[in-house]
Design brief:
By secondary structure, the protein is α/β, with parallel strands linked by helices. Helices cover 36% and strands 20% of the residues. α7 crosses α8, α10 runs antiparallel to α11 and α10 crosses α12. The structure holds guanosine-5'-triphosphate, magnesium ion and zinc ion. Zinc ion (ZN) binds next to α9. The site of magnesium ion has 6 residues, from α6.
Length: 364
């Protein structure tokens, strides 16, 4: 048996603290070992424990519920031996990053657990897609983590005026979210990121080719992750990283590098969407009618802000689209709510048609 101070020494760099130790107490008496999942790969996972990294089978932990499978970042109780050796349970998660797996089913997929900072990597090598940034941020807020946007490959935008405009565009898209620019190539901006991820656990998210693993290597100070050139000018990348990997950082903090995501479907993320569009929700509070849909009602503060140019109409459209998408995904798991939404759509006429279009387009 490892003494608890040895556990602290070995696992503190991975985020072990008194609260985790408390949560683990019942398993300690069963002779199980505490550890953090550093990688999951087809039913197997690598768990870092006080005695080193152990390979364990995850089948013991409710495999039928996709939200309750073991994932990278989980703190687990693992068997000290056995062939196979099993992960017996994971400790209650503080935060969880969940997306909807595909456009056809409303199944959630858990991407990372116990994350404090969600670092959304956005490549400056390709045209900014603000809608996608908003989508990532909605999931990030919903997870309980604090989001930050990192615009990568800043060396490819040498004109400081152009760069400042791009940053500003993202800042208006991300109220309350720090927006950094970095060049892993030249090291510019890395110091700010280092201090941001210097405590707690951070997860790197973004499209394939965004430069996540390059950032991970720069933060670790070693080539621990494979990096490959993006396929071509479309910047779609080639999905170099295929597993989620948890890495302790030399200057403190823990980093999870993830494979690039093709699609980020919302999964029950209404409050996350609300936080991404906090300025719209604030304006909505000033509308004359509390159930204002910001179409043609008198005294609508949202429309007034659009008319005066304070609120970009793109933002309002995007807000509506994500809210509808979220309603749809939630409704797919709740038939009664779905029929209510349908009625609502009929009543709202034009808005309802737009919603059906969104449904046909994305959530067939
Ligand atoms: N010019 C420039 N290129 C960069 C920078 N950071 C990364 N790249 C390049 O971008 C390409 C993709 O980088 P990766 O780090 O593999 O991207 P990724 O986000 O991990 O991709 P996936 O693992 O597929 O999700 C590589 O060719 C990197 O060399 C940068 O700061 N400047
Ligand atoms: Mg990668
Ligand atoms: Zn209104």
């Amino acid at each position: 048996m490892t003494s608890s101070s040895a556990v602290f020494t070995a696992l503190a760099p991975y985020g072990w603290d008194d609260a985790w130790a408390d949560a683990f107490t019942p398993y300690e008496s069963e002779g199980l070992l505490p550890g953090r999942v550093v990688r999951v790969d087809r039913g197997q996972c690598d768990v870092v424990t006080a005695g080193g990294v152990l390979r364990a089978d995850t089948a013991f932990v409710t495999p039928h519920d996709p939200l309750r499978v073991v994932c990278t970042g989980d703190w687990v109780a693992v068997e000290p031996g056995g062939n196979p050796r099993y992960v017996r349970t994971y400790l209650p998660r503080r935060t969880a990053f969940v997306r909807s797996t595909s456009s056809k089913r409303s199944e959630g997929q858990i991407l990372a657990a116990n994350v404090d900072h969600a670092v959304v990597a956005v490549s400056l090598a390709v045209e900014l897609d603000l809608g996608r940034v908003e989508r990532f941020l909605a999931l990030a807020w919903e997870s309980g983590a604090q989001p930050v946007v990192v615009l990568t490959k800043a060396d490819l935008v040498p004109d400081p005026v152009v760069l400042a405009h791009l940053v500003q565009d993202v800042e208006t898209t991300a109220p309350g979210v720090p927006v950094l620019t970095v060049s892993a190539l030249h090291g510019d901006g890395l110091d700010v990121l280092v201090s941001l991820v210097g405590s707690g656990t951070s997860v790197l998210l973004g499209q394939s080719g965004a430069g996540k693993s390059t950032l991970a290597n720069a933060l670790v100070g070693d080539d621990v992750m494979d990096v490959r050139a993006a396929r071509d000018v479309d910047g779609k990348g080639r999905h170099t990283t295929t597993t989620r990997n948890l890495l302790p950082l030399p200057s403190g903090g823990v980093l999870i590098d993830t494979p690039g995501l093709r699609g980020v479907g919302l999964f029950d993320a209404e409050s996350g969407v609300g936080q991404v569009f906090s300025e719209i929700e604030e304006l909505a509070g000033q509308c004359r009618f509390h159930d204002c849909v910001h179409e043609s009602e008198p005294g609508c503060a949202v429309r007034a802000a659009v008319d005066s140019g304070d609120l970009p109409v793109r933002r309002l459209d995007s807000y509506r689209k994500l809210m509808r998408e979220n309603q749809w995904i939630v409704a797919k798991t709740d038939a009664r709510l779905r029929s209510e939404i349908r009625k609502d759509w009929k009543r709202k006429g034009a808005e309802g048609r737009a919603a059906m279009e969104a449904k046909r387009g994305r959530w067939k």
